[in-house]
Each structure stands twice: as C-alpha cells, then as structure tokens.
Amino acid sequence: MKKRFFLFFSVILTVCTLFSSLGVSASSFLIDKAEEVVDIDVAGAEALCQTDDGFVWVAQYSGLTRYDANEFVSYKSFVENGVEYDIINVRRLVQHNNILYIMTYNNLFQYQNNTFSVIDLDFDSVKQSLSKDNINVECYDLEYDRVNDIIYICTNIGLFTYDVKTGSAGLVEDTKGKTVYRAVADPSRDRFLYQLGDGIYSDKHVKIFDDPAILELYIFADTLYICTTSGITGYDLAANALSSVQYPMITDQVNCAMYSENEKVLFAGCEKEGVYCIYENGEYSTMDNLENKTQIVDLMMDYEGNLWIASHNVSSSGVSIITKSALMDLLFDDVLWASEKYAGKSKTVYALERYGDTLYICLGKTGLVLFDINSGSIVPADGTDNPVMLGIQSYFAGKGVEPENVPYDFRDVEYY
Question: 259 with 387, same domain?
C-alpha cells in the first residue's frame, strides 16, 4: 500500500494555504470552513442576492444568473409590450418579499413570479428639466429601505426613489443634476445617507464625512462602515461622530463589507488580499489564498450560514462559497484536530480517497491526514503511523531538510 500511494499522490512542492492566520482565536470563523468554487458559465461577478425562495442570483456584465445548487439558468433579455430589453451589465441586486430588483447600467427591472418587467423611473423628464436630453443616464448603486419600502437608485443625474407600495418614482430634489455614487438606509433612525464626489451626506443634505476615495457604504446597527482605498473607517451614527473602534490596519483597497450577526464577524472584501475577518475581540484573520481572491466586489451570507464571495476578476470563476462540509464536521470533533498540533494551520480539504478502512485526506501544506474509519480518529500527520508522511520526511531528510521545513502541498490523491 505504501508504494502504491507514493506513485499516485499529487504533491505540489510550494507553500500555499487557504487561510493565513493573523492573531486568530480558536473560535475563528475559518477554523472549520473550506472554499467551494462555483463554476458559472461566464467568469466574473458584480453582485449577489438570495431571494426568499432560496435561489441565489449572480449579477454579471454578461447577464443575470440564477443558481439553485444543481443548475444555472442565465437571463440575457426579456420582452415586455413588444419591446426587448437587454439584461446586461448588471451592477446591483436587492430583494424583498421574493421580488428581485435588478439594476443594470441604465435601467431598473424586477423579477416576480417568473416574469421580468421594467420599472419606469422617468429619467427623461429629469433630463429635460436639466436641459440634458442627450446625456446617457448611468446607474451606480441600489439600496432597499425596508422600513419605508423605498428603493434608492443612484445615478449621474441624481438620487431616484421608487415606492414599492404605490409603484411611484421620484427624485430627491437636492440631488438633482448631481452624480450620486452610493446610498444606504439607516433603519434605526429612519433616514438615508448618500455619497457625492466629495463625501457622505445625510438626508438633510449636510456633509457628515469628507473623503473622495469611498468605495462602499454599509450600515449595521449604529455603525456606518466606510470602505475606502486604504481600509475601513467606522462612523457612529448614534453619536454623529467617527467611531472610537480601531479596525485592523488594512493596507489594501476595501471594496465591500458585511457584518454577520450570527458569527459576530465583520467581513471586508479587498482588491488584492482576499477577505479580512474582523472579530469582536479585536483579533482578525484573512482568507488570502482563495481562487476568487482578487477584485472582490460583494459578500453575502445565505440562509444556511454560508459566506458567498463575488469577484470581478474574469480570470477566476467569479463566485466562491465558504462553507462547512460534513467532512469538516467529522474532523472537527477529533481530539487531535482540536489540539495545538493543528492550531493556526490550514484545514482546507483539497481532495480525499478511501483505501480499505482509511481515508487519505489532502490538506495542502498542513500535510496528508489519515483518518481511521474503525476508530473514528486521525492518524498523526507527523510521520507516526503515517507511511506517506514518513516516506516524504525521510526523502527530504536525505537532502538535509528538517521535517518542519519540508515544502509539501498535498492537492490530490487517487487510488488505482
């Protein structure tokens, strides 16, 4: 058996882990999770949304994709009253009461009961009043105010509103003719905030934060998280002042943020460094070796507690799920798995194979773990009773490499 497995192991001799720990506690969000890549038909994603019926929707430049864990359905266009509308360059998605609202670069659509329809925001009348009939209206952001059932649509000619209850459209008058990049609802104070080119304004049109390099606005409870080209800044909405909370020094551009109340984690999606996980005790960790690691533009927690990541990078798949698998549950309860031996190490399962009563589990740089099905326990990965690890360590010892310095990276295993 030992010889057979040496012949058919795929071992990449490079240092590569999914999760790099930086002051991570044992209760880290990452400790029992792994990345699952979603292979959508066209790479690159812009936004994510899950409707009440459980479908996950992916906004893409090429169209709109619906995913139900079994198959993808892509939508490129629809016809209403004899007019064909393109569903391309989809930028934002929101949902309420199982109605999906879809913002493209120049339109707002809704999807309800398997039917698409156009929401007329009356851009033309505003263009005429501005004497800008020839301007192309561009949409930048979409926000749902769940307290008042109002949708905010940010454009280059102002902040538009859509009243879901009455079906009427409007314009926030003080923003008329201005480029509004983002809007965010503040439910605790029954108000909204919006971003112009020079900073953030309240619904009373008073500037509350001055910064031209803002990339995203996100509110949870009394904190406004301001994502910028150089990290995250917190704004205390109750005190109307900058937050006293100090966030980790993130040197990367932060494109999006999301807080999970169940996990008590603030997630920050970055341009280059993956996802930062910031915990309430001030500690943090990074997911910095994801397949969808760069140009992260949206984060979503689904109804089952899985973290979805959308990446704009067209050279990757575009969507990943950080999820807890049944195999991770099996290992998580093992005494050795919970010991200091594996503390802070990557626990991403890249591949596994069963031979006899043993599971051979590839854990990248952490090593090859053997799990004895009969005893329900892990065979130590330091070479003791583990013929594969023992053989590899013996090979490198002959080359003068100490066991702790062996640069293995187990990615695949196959029995023939």
Answer: no
Q: Is the pLDDT of residue 226 over 90?
A: yes
**What order of strands is seen across the sheet that includes strand 368-372?**
351-355, 358-362, 368-372, 377-379
* Domain-terminating residue out of 290, 323, 356: 323
Whether 251 and 371 share a structural domain: no
Does 241 lie in the same domain as 180? Answer: yes
**Do 317 and 397 sit in the same domain of this protein?**
no
Instruction: Tell me, yes or no, whether 305 and 371 share the same domain.
Output: no
pLDDT for the residue 343: 65
Backbone dihedral angles phi then psi of residue 13, each to the nearest 5 degrees:
-85, 75
Q: Which domain holds residue 353?
A: 2-15+327-413
C-alpha 130/C-alpha 133 separation (Å) is: 8
Q: With 60 as the cut, is the pLDDT of residue 402 above it?
A: yes
Domain end marker among 298, 323, 348:
323
Q: What is the pLDDT of residues 298-332, one digit of tens each?
A: 999 999 889 999 999 877 778 989 887 656 666 66
Q: Are residues 286 and 144 part of one domain?
A: yes
Q: Are 226 and 234 in contact (CB under 8 A)?
A: yes
**Tokens at 111, concatenated:** 């999807």
Alpha-carbon gap, residue 18 to 216, rounded angstroms: 26
For residue 150, CA distances in Å to 170, 182, 328 come to: 10, 15, 42
How would you classify the pairing of strands 410-413 and 9-11?
antiparallel
Q: What percent of the chain has pLDDT over 70?
A: 86
Same domain, 135 and 251: yes
Domain count, the chain: 2
The DSSP call for residue 174 is G
Higher pLDDT, 227 or 415: 227
Closest CA to 208 of 181, 175, 229, 234: 234
Q: How far is the CA of 209 from the CAs of 234, 246, 252, in angstroms?
A: 11, 17, 21
**Residue range 46-57: mean pLDDT, rounded:** 95
